[in-house]
Amino acid sequence: MIDNWVGYVVGCFVGVIMYRFYWYPLYLSPTCKIPGPPIDHFLLGNVIRLINEEPAEPQFDWAVKYGGIVCYHGIVNKPIISVTDPQLLQKILVNNTYDFPKPSYMISDLKAILGDGILMAEGDAHKRQRKMMNPAFTFTNIKEMVPTIVRVAHQSKEMWKNQIGDNEEKRMIISSFLSKVTLDMIGFVGFKYEFNNITSENELSNAYARIFHQKRTVLNVAVSVLVHYIPWIRKLPLPRNREVRRCIKIIEKFSLKLVKERREFFREGKPIGKDLLSLLVSINENLPEVEKMSDTELQYQIMTFLTAGHETTSSATSWSLYLLAQYPEIQNRLRKELIEAFPDPDFEPTFDEINSLEYLDCVIKESMRIVPPVPIITRTPTRDDVLQEYLVPKNTPIIIPIAAIHKLPTIWGSDADKFIPERWLISNLTSKVNSYTYMPFITGSRSCIGNKLALAEFKILLAVYIRNFKFKRIEGFEVRKRQMIATRPYPAIELIVSKVEV
């Protein structure tokens, strides 16, 4: 009798598990009607392919095969929707943006590093922060930051020249050095703070290096996948978790120190400059009490600027140099434009001068098309919703694979996978491109608030480097893309660098 009951209980348990994690998601869920690939594993869905390939590569293949809305499956066959259709993107990112927030697992994971700033805020909190911060990112303010950006760019240029010395050329690690350069940049234009990362080590830059230079061990890969399903895994006393927590405490301490110092400067009537933090404190002090940000909220904005601000620009510049090293004829054409515009290698361009260079603009756009700063973003509906004719249940993850959208042949042609800056000079292409087919800084009210500053930094860095150096690829050296805050190279990008004596 007892054996019968045990068998019955075990059978019921197995039946519930099979229904919950196999039959329902694969055959009974409303998402089953959405076209998509078959699962590769009865419990892991399509996860193995997602881990083994670069960000957005599987979603690209599925978009080409199945169309603008696709359903694939994660661990225990959890349905995941991938959207590349422009009309659906408009609904999710613009028309109903606050009905499609970031999923909770992503917020909890990123909030530890970025704080509860504008990048992580949702709903009314985001609207309030965006409204308050927009005046700090006007073209007028960005123009005033350009001389500082130029100074840091030339300082890093001199470092490279000194490293090359009397050699004809030198093999150099590019991407990790550029992380230090852009952290110096955001330090001064963001907070009027001299990090001096490119000339010396410091606690803050080391903290960021440890956070973003994660070793690709089996345990680290497993945690990065499982955190989507088991968020509390980040709280376990694992070595990597402990290291990240130590680094975050350093970033939090530094950010709060800056806020308090700047508030004191303002209240004492001291000149505080035109850096982003000074502008925010000034704007904040003149707001009604109910609209003001607290010190903690301002601290979170600093954490956001520090992390997202330096990571996206260093990543974009690194990938652009890597691409130009693969295509020397494109690199030479860009250098020719730069030398004609700026005969002096120590040129100090204005905002308008750097933006007037047509081919530089094409190279920048094409670099961010081939390797967008953020390859994938994720949203989730706050209630059951309909996308096209398909019902998407509440809380279903919706992937927007920007890197896949940027290479769709229906938009970009049969050579969509090729690095061709000249495509941006073709009028019939620009008629197809809009904010739903090309979105390096996303689009809508959740687009990157600092995109004008990031573009200015990117253009100036690339102009200074290509004007003064030649970059060659290293035979046999390959890198893969990894998504952290931005699209990071793994391993760090290395190139052969030589001076331009003109």
Automatic annotation (TrEMBL):
GO molecular function: heme binding; iron ion binding; monooxygenase activity; oxidoreductase activity, acting on paired donors, with incorporation or reduction of molecular oxygen
UniProt cross-references to Gene3D superfamilies, sorted A to Z: Cytochrome P450
Record field: transmembrane: 5-24
Domain of life: Eukaryota
A Pfam family per the record: p450
Keywords: Heme, Iron, Membrane, Metal-binding, Monooxygenase, Oxidoreductase, Transmembrane, Transmembrane helix
Cofactor(s) it depends on: heme
Amino acids binding heme: 448
Record has Transcription regulation as a keyword: no
InterPro entries, A to Z: Cyt_P450, Cyt_P450_E_grp-I, Cyt_P450_sf, Cytochrome_P450_Monoox
Similarity annotation: Belongs to the cytochrome P450 family.
Name the record gives this protein: Cytochrome P450
Organism per entry: Gigaspora margarita
